């Protein structure tokens, strides 16, 4: 028997994304906060995509993977942040049902690809650190390309299965989505059809996506850390360890919050907690990744320095050109 039994059957055409408050008034402070976050995320990640594309020294599998990660993060921040910014500024929180599902679709593909790509990156580091002599043979441009394409195809397939069924749902329960973007769990709660099969399918694909990639990542890092602990020099060990531990912190936060939100049965998790956890993997990960993975790295710093010098030389020559006119 449908959930709609006994309720009035007015079909809903649009949703209200409640976001971080209950009233429809603009929230300028939150707007500023998220604007800063968006600008920082876009700048950091675009910088990395640009550097990886432009600098010959960064044309290696590790940086290709990092470039792809940044590219993904630009994409998935852009699936929900512009919409959130607009509604924080104007107070208009309505979103059409189609718009909502499309947002969820792109967000899903990109975040799944991100979690797979992170495990591909940890596999790359595992090969480099634990099998340095065989690294060049095991990881080259072709393998790297296959990994990247594999991540995209897997996430596309996993999310498409879920999303095709989402389009067939009808909504008649309530208009209000208690979240800051269209996410699966809050959306499914508003449906008046039978959602059990869909929930099962989603559970299986989310669990496969997140468990497999987090296990791969974890295994790689366990091997990396055991290798590091065998380094004889203390300074070498400390340096390698500090890099790895910062990666591990971001990865742990990303995977733990992702699994808590999508895999652990959500019926009993308070909504506020759901929202807070979502902030971690949607907002913090894409903002911090460029800093953690790249901007502390010697090669990237060097490449950035050269790019800046070129930019200064270029603007000086432009000025010289203008003066000579
Ligand atoms: C993504 O990876 C592919 C394959 O390795 C590479 O050719 C491409 O340049 C990368 N993209 C970015 C934006 O770094």
SSE layout:
Layout: E1 14-17, H1 28-54, H2 61-90, E2 94-96, H3 97-130, H4 135-138, H5 141-167, E3 176-177, H6 184-189, H7 196-229, H8 234-262, H9 271-295, H10 298-324
Parallel strand pairs: 1-3
Antiparallel strand pairs: 1-2
This protein binds 2-acetamido-2-deoxy-beta-D-glucopyranose (NAG).
Residues 49, 52, 64, 67-68, 71, 144-145, 148 line the site of 2-acetamido-2-deoxy-beta-D-glucopyranose (NAG).
Concise synopsis of the structure shown:
The protein is 75% helix and 3% strand. The chain is mostly helical and 325 residues long. 2-acetamido-2-deoxy-beta-D-glucopyranose is lined by residues 49, 52, 64, 67-68, 71, 144-145, 148.
Protein described:
By secondary structure, this protein is mostly helical. It has one domain: Rhodopsin 7-helix transmembrane proteins (Rhopdopsin 7-helix transmembrane proteins). 75% of the residues lie in helices and 3% in strands. It has a three-stranded mixed beta sheet. Helix 5 runs antiparallel to helix 7 and helix 7 runs antiparallel to helix 8. It is globular and about 65 Å long. The relative contact order is 0.13. The structure holds 2-acetamido-2-deoxy-beta-D-glucopyranose. 2-acetamido-2-deoxy-beta-D-glucopyranose binds next to helix 1, helix 2 and helix 5.
């Amino acid at each position: 028997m449908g959930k709609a039994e006994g309720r009035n059957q007015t079909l809903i055409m649009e949703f209200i994304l409640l976001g971080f408050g209950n009233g429809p008034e603009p929230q300028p402070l939150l707007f500023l906060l998220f604007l800063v976050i968006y600008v920082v995320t876009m700048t950091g990640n675009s910088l990395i995509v640009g550097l990886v594309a432009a600098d010959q020294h960064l044309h290696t599998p590790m940086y290709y993977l990092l470039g792809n990660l940044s590219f993904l993060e630009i994409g998935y921040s852009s699936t929900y942040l512009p919409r959130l910014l607009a509604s924080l500024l104007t107070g208009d929180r309505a979103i059409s049902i189609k718009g909502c599902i499309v947002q969820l679709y792109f967000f899903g593909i990109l975040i799944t690809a991100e979690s797979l790509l992170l495990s591909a990156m940890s596999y790359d580091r595992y090969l480099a650190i634990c099998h340095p002599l065989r690294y060049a043979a095991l990881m080259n441009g072709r393998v790297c390309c296959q990994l990247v394409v594999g991540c995209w195809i897997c996430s596309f397939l996993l999310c498409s299965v879920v999303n095709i069924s989402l389009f067939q749902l009808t909504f008649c329960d309530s208009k209000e989505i208690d979240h800051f973007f269209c996410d699966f769990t809050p959306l499914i709660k508003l449906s008046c059809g039978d959602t059990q099969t869909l929930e099962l399918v989603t559970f299986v694909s989310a669990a496969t996506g997140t468990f497999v990639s987090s296990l791969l990542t974890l295994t790689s890092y366990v091997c990396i850390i055991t290798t590091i602990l065998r380094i004889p020099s203390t300074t070498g060990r400390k340096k390698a360890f500090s890099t790895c531990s910062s990666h591990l912190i971001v990865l742990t936060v990303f995977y733990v919050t992702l699994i808590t939100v999508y895999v652990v049965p959500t019926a009993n998790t308070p909504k506020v907690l759901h929202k807070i956890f979502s902030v971690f993997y949607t907002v913090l990960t894409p903002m911090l990744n460029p800093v953690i993975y790249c901007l502390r790295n010697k090669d990237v710093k060097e490449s950035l320095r050269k790019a800046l010098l070129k930019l200064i030389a270029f603007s000086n020559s432009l000025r010289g050109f203008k003066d000579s006119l």
